[in-house]
Amino acid sequence: MTSQRLAYTYLSDHQREAIDSWRARFPDHDQGRQSAVIQALHIAQEGNGGWLSQQMLDAVADYLELTPVRVYEVATFYSMFHLHPVGRHKVNICQNISCMLCGSDELVRHIEQHLGIGLGETTADGRITLVPEDECLAACTGAPMMLVDEHYYTDLTPEKATAILDSLE
Amino acid sequence: MVNDVCYATLKYDQPWTLDNYYREGGYEALKRVLDGPMDRGEIIDEIKKATLRGRGGAGFSTGMKWGFMPRDAPGQKYLICNSDESEPGTCKDRHLLRFNPHALVEGMIISGYAMGATVGYNYLRGEFMKEPFERIEEAVREAREAGFLGENILGSGVDFEMHNLIGAGAYICGEETGLLESIEGKRGLPRNKPPFPAQYGIYGRPATVNNTETIASVPTVMRRGADWFLEQGRPNNGGTKLFCVSGHVNSPGVFEIPLGMPFKELLGMAGGVRDGRKLKAVIPGGTSMPALPGEEMMELDMDFDSLAKAKSGLGSGGLVVMDDTTDMVEVCLRISRFYYAESCGQCTPCREGTGWMHRVIKRIYQGKGSYDDIELLEAAAGQIAGHTICAFGEASAWPVQGILRHWRHEFEHYVEHGRSMVEAAA
Question: Global pTM?
Answer without folding.
Answer: 0.97
